[in-house]
Amino acid sequence: MAFKVTDKVIWVGKIDWGLRRFHGDEYSTHRGSSYNAYLIRDKKNVLIDTVWLPFAKEFVDELRKEINLKDIDYIVMNHGEIDHSGALSELMKHIPDTPIYCTANAVKSLKGHYHQDWNFVTVKTGDVLDIGESKLTFIEARMLHWPDTMFTYMSGENILFSNDAFGHHLAADPMFNDSVDQAELYYESMKYYANILTPFSYLISDKIEEVLSFHLPLDMICPSHGVIWRENPEQIIRKYLEWANDYQENQITIIYDTMWNGTRRMAEYICKGIREADGDVTIKLLNVADTDKNDLIVEVFKSKAILVGCPTINKAISFATMGILEMIRGLSFKNKKGAAFGTYGWSGESPKIINEELSKAGFEIVSQPLKEIWHPGEEALNRCKEFGRKFVENIM
Ligand SMILES: Cc1cc2nc3c(=O)[nH]c(=O)nc-3n(C[C@H](O)[C@H](O)[C@H](O)COP(=O)(O)O)c2cc1C
Questions:
Q1: How far is the CA of 316 from the centre of ligand 1 (A)?
Q2: Domain 3-244 CATH assignment equals 3.30.565.10
Protein backbone atom coordinates (compact mmCIF):
# COMPACT_ATOMS: atom_id res chain seq x y z
CA MET A 1 0.00 0.00 0.00
CA ALA A 2 1.16 3.51 -0.81
CA PHE A 3 -0.71 6.80 -0.87
CA LYS A 4 -0.16 10.33 -2.05
CA VAL A 5 0.69 12.87 0.65
CA THR A 6 1.29 15.76 -1.78
CA ASP A 7 2.09 15.93 -5.50
CA LYS A 8 5.73 15.22 -4.67
CA VAL A 9 5.51 13.00 -1.60
CA ILE A 10 4.24 9.42 -1.41
CA TRP A 11 3.80 7.47 1.83
CA VAL A 12 5.48 4.07 1.36
CA GLY A 13 5.41 2.67 4.91
CA LYS A 14 3.54 -0.14 6.62
CA ILE A 15 0.36 -0.02 8.73
CA ASP A 16 0.64 -2.63 11.50
CA TRP A 17 -3.00 -3.10 12.52
CA GLY A 18 -2.29 -6.16 14.67
CA LEU A 19 0.54 -4.76 16.81
CA ARG A 20 -0.33 -4.95 20.52
CA ARG A 21 3.13 -4.82 22.15
CA PHE A 22 6.08 -2.67 21.14
CA HIS A 23 9.67 -2.41 22.40
CA GLY A 24 9.29 -6.00 23.61
CA ASP A 25 6.67 -5.71 26.34
CA GLU A 26 7.61 -2.14 27.27
CA TYR A 27 4.83 -0.35 25.37
CA SER A 28 1.22 -1.46 24.83
CA THR A 29 -0.23 -0.58 21.44
CA HIS A 30 -3.99 -1.12 21.87
CA ARG A 31 -4.68 0.57 18.54
CA GLY A 32 -1.81 -0.85 16.45
CA SER A 33 0.78 1.38 14.84
CA SER A 34 2.43 2.30 11.57
CA TYR A 35 6.01 2.64 10.39
CA ASN A 36 6.01 5.62 8.07
CA ALA A 37 8.46 5.89 5.20
CA TYR A 38 8.17 8.59 2.55
CA LEU A 39 9.29 8.78 -1.06
CA ILE A 40 9.99 12.25 -2.41
CA ARG A 41 9.91 12.62 -6.20
CA ASP A 42 11.62 15.79 -7.36
CA LYS A 43 14.53 16.16 -9.81
CA LYS A 44 16.19 13.80 -7.36
CA ASN A 45 14.29 10.95 -5.69
CA VAL A 46 14.69 10.59 -1.95
CA LEU A 47 13.54 7.89 0.45
CA ILE A 48 12.98 9.05 4.02
CA ASP A 49 13.29 6.17 6.55
CA THR A 50 12.16 2.57 6.07
CA VAL A 51 10.04 0.17 8.17
CA TRP A 52 10.42 -2.42 10.92
CA LEU A 53 12.54 -5.49 10.15
CA PRO A 54 9.71 -8.12 9.86
CA PHE A 55 8.24 -6.10 6.99
CA ALA A 56 11.54 -5.55 5.16
CA LYS A 57 10.88 -7.74 2.13
CA GLU A 58 7.29 -6.57 1.79
CA PHE A 59 8.50 -2.97 2.00
CA VAL A 60 11.04 -3.38 -0.79
CA ASP A 61 8.52 -5.26 -2.99
CA GLU A 62 5.94 -2.50 -2.52
CA LEU A 63 8.51 0.27 -3.02
CA ARG A 64 9.42 -1.30 -6.37
CA LYS A 65 5.85 -0.74 -7.53
CA GLU A 66 6.37 3.00 -6.98
CA ILE A 67 9.89 3.44 -8.30
CA ASN A 68 12.71 1.53 -9.96
CA LEU A 69 14.99 1.14 -6.94
CA LYS A 70 17.96 2.26 -9.04
CA ASP A 71 16.23 5.64 -9.46
CA ILE A 72 16.45 6.39 -5.72
CA ASP A 73 19.19 9.03 -5.53
CA TYR A 74 19.40 9.50 -1.77
CA ILE A 75 18.21 7.82 1.40
CA VAL A 76 17.64 9.91 4.53
CA MET A 77 17.69 8.05 7.85
CA ASN A 78 16.30 10.33 10.53
CA HIS A 79 16.88 7.70 13.26
CA GLY A 80 18.62 4.32 13.42
CA GLU A 81 16.11 2.41 15.53
CA ILE A 82 14.99 -0.92 14.03
CA ASP A 83 11.36 0.13 13.49
CA HIS A 84 12.62 2.74 10.97
CA SER A 85 15.86 1.24 9.71
CA GLY A 86 14.85 -2.44 9.71
CA ALA A 87 14.39 -2.67 5.94
CA LEU A 88 17.67 -0.93 5.12
CA SER A 89 19.72 -4.12 4.76
CA GLU A 90 17.16 -5.61 2.36
CA LEU A 91 17.02 -2.38 0.34
CA MET A 92 20.80 -1.90 0.22
CA LYS A 93 21.22 -5.35 -1.35
CA HIS A 94 19.67 -3.80 -4.46
CA ILE A 95 21.25 -0.33 -4.33
CA PRO A 96 24.43 -0.77 -2.29
CA ASP A 97 26.09 2.52 -3.28
CA THR A 98 23.18 4.89 -2.67
CA PRO A 99 24.20 7.62 -0.22
CA ILE A 100 22.55 7.52 3.21
CA TYR A 101 22.18 10.98 4.78
CA CYS A 102 22.13 10.86 8.57
CA THR A 103 23.79 12.28 11.69
CA ALA A 104 27.22 11.13 12.87
CA ASN A 105 25.47 9.37 15.77
CA ALA A 106 23.20 7.57 13.30
CA VAL A 107 26.26 6.22 11.49
CA LYS A 108 27.21 4.69 14.84
CA SER A 109 23.74 3.28 15.56
CA LEU A 110 23.27 1.96 12.00
CA LYS A 111 26.72 0.35 11.98
CA GLY A 112 26.01 -0.93 15.49
CA HIS A 113 22.91 -2.74 14.28
CA TYR A 114 23.74 -3.81 10.73
CA HIS A 115 27.57 -3.88 10.69
CA GLN A 116 27.73 -2.55 7.14
CA ASP A 117 29.98 0.15 5.73
CA TRP A 118 27.34 1.80 3.57
CA ASN A 119 27.88 5.10 1.76
CA PHE A 120 27.08 7.33 4.74
CA VAL A 121 26.97 11.11 4.33
CA THR A 122 26.93 12.74 7.75
CA VAL A 123 24.91 15.92 8.21
CA LYS A 124 24.56 18.57 10.90
CA THR A 125 21.88 21.12 11.75
CA GLY A 126 21.44 23.57 8.90
CA ASP A 127 22.98 21.38 6.18
CA VAL A 128 20.94 21.52 2.99
CA LEU A 129 20.46 18.95 0.24
CA ASP A 130 19.24 20.38 -3.07
CA ILE A 131 16.86 17.92 -4.75
CA GLY A 132 15.51 20.10 -7.56
CA GLU A 133 12.60 22.43 -6.88
CA SER A 134 12.72 21.59 -3.18
CA LYS A 135 15.52 21.59 -0.68
CA LEU A 136 15.93 19.33 2.34
CA THR A 137 17.25 20.97 5.50
CA PHE A 138 18.49 18.75 8.31
CA ILE A 139 17.99 19.57 11.99
CA GLU A 140 19.70 17.41 14.61
CA ALA A 141 17.40 16.46 17.48
CA ARG A 142 19.74 14.69 19.87
CA MET A 143 17.99 12.52 22.49
CA LEU A 144 14.56 12.95 20.93
CA HIS A 145 14.66 10.13 21.59
CA TRP A 146 18.07 8.64 20.69
CA PRO A 147 21.40 10.46 20.26
CA ASP A 148 21.12 9.86 16.50
CA THR A 149 17.73 11.47 15.87
CA MET A 150 17.21 14.31 13.39
CA PHE A 151 14.35 16.03 11.61
CA THR A 152 14.28 16.76 7.87
CA TYR A 153 12.45 19.79 6.52
CA MET A 154 11.33 19.91 2.87
CA SER A 155 10.89 23.38 1.38
CA GLY A 156 8.23 24.01 -1.26
CA GLU A 157 5.94 21.35 0.21
CA ASN A 158 6.68 22.83 3.67
CA ILE A 159 6.83 19.44 5.40
CA LEU A 160 8.67 18.57 8.59
CA PHE A 161 9.63 14.89 8.63
CA SER A 162 9.90 14.69 12.40
CA ASN A 163 10.56 10.98 12.89
CA ASP A 164 9.37 9.87 16.38
CA ALA A 165 8.61 13.39 17.62
CA PHE A 166 4.90 14.25 17.26
CA GLY A 167 4.17 10.56 16.55
CA HIS A 168 1.85 8.08 18.23
CA HIS A 169 1.07 4.39 17.97
CA LEU A 170 -2.16 4.40 16.00
CA ALA A 171 -3.12 2.36 12.95
CA ALA A 172 -5.49 4.32 10.73
CA ASP A 173 -6.71 4.57 7.16
CA PRO A 174 -6.76 7.28 5.86
CA MET A 175 -3.66 8.34 7.74
CA PHE A 176 -4.36 12.02 8.32
CA ASN A 177 -5.07 13.78 11.60
CA ASP A 178 -8.34 15.23 10.34
CA SER A 179 -9.76 11.80 9.46
CA VAL A 180 -9.34 9.98 12.79
CA ASP A 181 -11.16 10.11 16.12
CA GLN A 182 -9.71 13.22 17.81
CA ALA A 183 -9.95 11.84 21.37
CA GLU A 184 -8.06 8.68 20.33
CA LEU A 185 -5.41 10.75 18.56
CA TYR A 186 -4.99 13.04 21.57
CA TYR A 187 -4.75 10.11 23.97
CA GLU A 188 -2.26 8.16 21.86
CA SER A 189 -0.10 11.26 21.32
CA MET A 190 -0.06 11.96 25.06
CA LYS A 191 0.65 8.29 25.83
CA TYR A 192 3.61 8.38 23.45
CA TYR A 193 4.93 11.58 25.00
CA ALA A 194 4.41 10.37 28.60
CA ASN A 195 6.00 6.95 28.07
CA ILE A 196 8.82 7.78 25.64
CA LEU A 197 9.65 11.47 25.72
CA THR A 198 9.13 12.56 29.34
CA PRO A 199 12.80 11.96 30.31
CA PHE A 200 13.82 14.39 27.55
CA SER A 201 11.29 17.11 28.34
CA TYR A 202 14.15 19.42 29.38
CA LEU A 203 15.37 19.39 25.75
CA ILE A 204 12.05 19.62 23.96
CA SER A 205 11.06 23.27 24.49
CA ASP A 206 14.52 24.43 23.33
CA LYS A 207 14.44 22.18 20.28
CA ILE A 208 10.99 23.41 19.29
CA GLU A 209 12.09 27.04 19.80
CA GLU A 210 15.15 26.32 17.63
CA VAL A 211 13.02 24.86 14.83
CA LEU A 212 10.56 27.77 15.06
CA SER A 213 13.49 30.24 14.93
CA PHE A 214 14.18 29.14 11.34
CA HIS A 215 10.77 30.67 10.45
CA LEU A 216 10.03 27.81 8.09
CA PRO A 217 6.50 27.73 6.72
CA LEU A 218 4.82 24.56 7.96
CA ASP A 219 1.99 22.87 6.07
CA MET A 220 2.43 19.34 7.40
CA ILE A 221 4.24 17.29 10.00
CA CYS A 222 4.99 13.77 8.79
CA PRO A 223 6.03 11.64 11.80
CA SER A 224 7.36 8.11 11.64
CA HIS A 225 4.44 6.54 13.55
CA GLY A 226 0.75 7.24 13.18
CA VAL A 227 -1.13 9.87 11.23
CA ILE A 228 0.18 12.84 9.28
CA TRP A 229 -0.62 16.21 10.85
CA ARG A 230 -1.98 18.13 7.85
CA GLU A 231 -4.82 20.09 9.49
CA ASN A 232 -3.45 22.67 11.89
CA PRO A 233 -0.09 20.93 12.47
CA GLU A 234 0.85 23.63 15.01
CA GLN A 235 -1.64 22.06 17.45
CA ILE A 236 0.72 19.18 18.28
CA ILE A 237 3.68 21.57 18.60
CA ARG A 238 1.67 23.62 21.13
CA LYS A 239 0.78 20.44 23.03
CA TYR A 240 4.45 19.39 23.15
CA LEU A 241 5.38 22.79 24.59
CA GLU A 242 2.73 22.31 27.29
CA TRP A 243 3.70 18.71 28.02
CA ALA A 244 7.40 19.55 28.18
CA ASN A 245 6.79 22.17 30.85
CA ASP A 246 6.30 19.86 33.90
CA TYR A 247 2.77 19.11 32.72
CA GLN A 248 0.06 18.40 35.24
CA GLU A 249 -3.71 18.58 35.51
CA ASN A 250 -5.82 18.97 38.64
CA GLN A 251 -5.64 15.22 39.25
CA ILE A 252 -4.59 12.87 42.04
CA THR A 253 -4.02 9.23 41.15
CA ILE A 254 -4.14 6.44 43.72
CA ILE A 255 -2.28 3.35 42.58
CA TYR A 256 -2.56 0.24 44.73
CA ASP A 257 -2.04 -3.50 44.80
CA THR A 258 -3.76 -6.00 47.08
CA MET A 259 -3.99 -9.72 47.80
CA TRP A 260 -7.03 -9.82 50.12
CA ASN A 261 -8.56 -6.37 49.49
CA GLY A 262 -7.33 -4.67 52.67
CA THR A 263 -5.17 -2.19 50.78
CA ARG A 264 -8.04 -1.63 48.32
CA ARG A 265 -10.29 -0.64 51.25
CA MET A 266 -7.59 1.75 52.47
CA ALA A 267 -7.35 3.26 48.99
CA GLU A 268 -11.12 3.75 48.78
CA TYR A 269 -11.25 5.57 52.13
CA ILE A 270 -8.26 7.73 51.23
CA CYS A 271 -10.23 8.58 48.12
CA LYS A 272 -13.24 9.63 50.28
CA GLY A 273 -10.98 11.87 52.37
CA ILE A 274 -9.54 13.54 49.27
CA ARG A 275 -13.02 14.17 47.92
CA GLU A 276 -14.20 15.67 51.24
CA ALA A 277 -11.23 18.05 51.24
CA ASP A 278 -11.43 19.00 47.57
CA GLY A 279 -14.66 18.86 45.59
CA ASP A 280 -13.03 19.58 42.24
CA VAL A 281 -9.89 17.49 41.94
CA THR A 282 -10.09 14.55 39.53
CA ILE A 283 -9.35 11.30 41.37
CA LYS A 284 -8.33 8.08 39.64
CA LEU A 285 -8.19 4.88 41.69
CA LEU A 286 -6.29 2.16 39.84
CA ASN A 287 -5.21 -1.36 40.68
CA VAL A 288 -1.66 -1.64 39.44
CA ALA A 289 -1.88 -5.36 38.67
CA ASP A 290 -5.03 -5.00 36.56
CA THR A 291 -4.24 -1.76 34.73
CA ASP A 292 -2.09 -1.51 31.63
CA LYS A 293 1.22 -0.04 32.80
CA ASN A 294 1.56 2.47 29.96
CA ASP A 295 -2.01 3.73 30.51
CA LEU A 296 -1.12 4.06 34.18
CA ILE A 297 1.90 6.17 33.24
CA VAL A 298 -0.45 8.51 31.35
CA GLU A 299 -2.40 9.01 34.60
CA VAL A 300 0.82 9.70 36.52
CA PHE A 301 1.83 12.15 33.78
CA LYS A 302 -1.47 14.04 34.23
CA SER A 303 -1.33 14.01 38.05
CA LYS A 304 -0.06 16.71 40.37
CA ALA A 305 0.31 14.05 43.07
CA ILE A 306 0.06 10.28 43.45
CA LEU A 307 -0.53 7.88 46.33
CA VAL A 308 0.90 4.39 46.08
CA GLY A 309 -0.33 1.55 48.27
CA CYS A 310 0.73 -2.06 48.68
CA PRO A 311 0.60 -4.72 51.41
CA THR A 312 3.87 -5.99 52.82
CA ILE A 313 4.87 -9.22 51.08
CA ASN A 314 7.99 -11.03 52.31
CA LYS A 315 9.27 -7.80 53.89
CA ALA A 316 8.95 -6.15 50.48
CA ILE A 317 6.36 -4.91 47.97
CA SER A 318 4.57 -6.64 45.12
CA PHE A 319 6.10 -7.28 41.71
CA ALA A 320 3.53 -5.00 40.02
CA THR A 321 4.08 -2.14 42.49
CA MET A 322 7.86 -2.35 42.17
CA GLY A 323 7.49 -2.50 38.39
CA ILE A 324 5.46 0.69 38.12
CA LEU A 325 7.71 2.52 40.60
CA GLU A 326 10.73 1.55 38.50
CA MET A 327 9.01 2.83 35.35
CA ILE A 328 8.10 6.08 37.12
CA ARG A 329 11.71 6.51 38.27
CA GLY A 330 13.06 5.98 34.75
CA LEU A 331 10.76 8.61 33.30
CA SER A 332 12.13 11.39 35.55
CA PHE A 333 8.85 13.20 36.20
CA LYS A 334 9.31 16.68 37.64
CA ASN A 335 7.35 18.73 40.16
CA LYS A 336 5.11 15.95 41.47
CA LYS A 337 4.21 14.95 45.02
CA GLY A 338 3.49 11.61 46.60
CA ALA A 339 2.80 9.47 49.66
CA ALA A 340 2.52 5.77 50.53
CA PHE A 341 0.18 3.44 52.38
CA GLY A 342 -0.48 -0.27 52.84
CA THR A 343 -1.60 -3.10 55.12
CA TYR A 344 0.64 -5.62 56.84
CA GLY A 345 0.59 -8.62 59.16
CA TRP A 346 3.71 -8.44 61.33
CA SER A 347 6.71 -6.46 60.02
CA GLY A 348 5.07 -3.84 57.73
CA GLU A 349 7.93 -2.61 55.53
CA SER A 350 5.87 -1.78 52.40
CA PRO A 351 4.96 1.93 52.81
CA LYS A 352 8.52 2.82 53.79
CA ILE A 353 9.87 1.03 50.72
CA ILE A 354 7.36 2.81 48.49
CA ASN A 355 8.34 6.19 49.92
CA GLU A 356 12.01 5.44 49.29
CA GLU A 357 11.23 4.51 45.68
CA LEU A 358 9.12 7.64 45.17
CA SER A 359 11.93 9.78 46.60
CA LYS A 360 14.42 8.16 44.24
CA ALA A 361 12.00 9.02 41.43
CA GLY A 362 12.18 12.69 42.42
CA PHE A 363 8.73 12.93 44.04
CA GLU A 364 8.33 15.21 47.04
CA ILE A 365 7.01 13.04 49.89
CA VAL A 366 4.34 15.12 51.61
CA SER A 367 2.93 12.71 54.25
CA GLN A 368 4.27 10.15 56.70
CA PRO A 369 3.45 6.66 55.35
CA LEU A 370 0.20 5.14 56.60
CA LYS A 371 0.12 1.45 57.52
CA GLU A 372 -2.73 -0.60 58.95
CA ILE A 373 -2.59 -4.12 60.32
CA TRP A 374 -4.48 -6.97 58.58
CA HIS A 375 -7.88 -6.02 57.16
CA PRO A 376 -8.73 -2.42 58.13
CA GLY A 377 -11.71 -2.01 60.50
CA GLU A 378 -13.79 1.12 61.09
CA GLU A 379 -11.16 3.01 63.05
CA ALA A 380 -8.47 2.23 60.52
CA LEU A 381 -10.74 3.30 57.68
CA ASN A 382 -11.39 6.61 59.43
CA ARG A 383 -7.63 7.09 59.70
CA CYS A 384 -7.42 6.48 55.94
CA LYS A 385 -10.05 9.14 55.31
CA GLU A 386 -8.15 11.57 57.50
CA PHE A 387 -4.93 10.66 55.67
CA GLY A 388 -6.65 11.56 52.37
CA ARG A 389 -7.88 14.88 53.77
CA LYS A 390 -4.41 15.76 55.08
CA PHE A 391 -2.80 14.73 51.81
CA VAL A 392 -4.86 17.38 50.01
CA GLU A 393 -3.70 20.01 52.54
CA ASN A 394 -0.09 18.86 52.22
CA ILE A 395 0.03 19.18 48.46
CA MET A 396 -1.38 22.71 48.47
C1 LIG B 1 2.82 -14.39 50.86
C2 LIG B 1 2.63 -13.38 51.95
C3 LIG B 1 3.74 -12.81 52.51
C4 LIG B 1 3.60 -11.87 53.53
N5 LIG B 1 4.70 -11.29 54.06
C6 LIG B 1 4.55 -10.39 55.05
C7 LIG B 1 5.69 -9.79 55.65
O8 LIG B 1 6.84 -10.08 55.32
N9 LIG B 1 5.49 -8.85 56.60
C10 LIG B 1 4.25 -8.50 57.02
O11 LIG B 1 4.12 -7.61 57.84
N12 LIG B 1 3.14 -9.06 56.47
C13 LIG B 1 3.27 -10.00 55.51
N14 LIG B 1 2.16 -10.57 54.96
C15 LIG B 1 0.83 -10.21 55.46
C16 LIG B 1 0.13 -9.22 54.59
O17 LIG B 1 0.84 -8.02 54.53
C18 LIG B 1 -1.29 -9.00 55.14
O19 LIG B 1 -2.02 -10.19 54.96
C20 LIG B 1 -2.02 -7.84 54.53
O21 LIG B 1 -3.11 -7.49 55.34
C22 LIG B 1 -2.50 -8.14 53.12
O23 LIG B 1 -3.09 -6.98 52.60
P24 LIG B 1 -4.19 -7.04 51.44
O25 LIG B 1 -5.50 -7.41 52.06
O26 LIG B 1 -4.19 -5.68 50.85
O27 LIG B 1 -3.74 -8.07 50.48
C28 LIG B 1 2.29 -11.52 53.97
C29 LIG B 1 1.20 -12.12 53.39
C30 LIG B 1 1.34 -13.04 52.38
C31 LIG B 1 0.13 -13.66 51.76
A1: 9
A2: no
